[in-house]
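Hi V.,

You were right to ask for the full record rather than a summary. Here it is.
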Amino acid sequence: MSRLLHISASPRGAASESLALAAAFVDAYRETHGDVIDHYDLWDGGLPAFGPAGAGAKMTVFAGDDPAGEQAAAWEAARAVFERFDSYDRYLFSVPMWNSSVPYILKQFIDVVSQPDWVFAFDPDDGYTGLLHGKKAAVVYTSAVYGDGRPPAFGADHQAPFLEGWLRWAGVTDLSTVAFRPNLATADAETGRRTAHADARELGKRF
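Predicted structure:
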């Protein structure tokens, strides 16, 4: 049986468009597949910082040594997050747009788990190789102002390129997406919302 981990990056609870869209996906996925589904709310307070001790541990590992002291503790905390993440073979990311990109908490998660011999390998001659083989991901994106085809004054998309670029770099190449991008300043969003939720349900059925 496959295991699906929903990684959510919105702190807005019931007011969140991205969480509502993810819920439509999850409901359809559960009805169709009956697999194990877990929710990792990145705002639950459990995500460790990756600051001086973590960065020092990473460079110690790159040098071929074992972290010690504060570095070892930071490395162990990061490893626990990675092991939870890596224990699933299917991922759902729900991602609102913040300032043209992703919420900082999602970037923190990526920085915590993206470590040598966990998410990637590195060769001085050949560069990076992603290690998350055999996994697949679905992503639901939302944005309140930015949308394809709108003028530059309505923003730019550094959200999807960043996340999908990281997933492919990490070895996850089986990707599917759904987006809800109404211009809430001028448009009635309900028609687009219904379409996006229908797309999310359909993706959940066939994922």
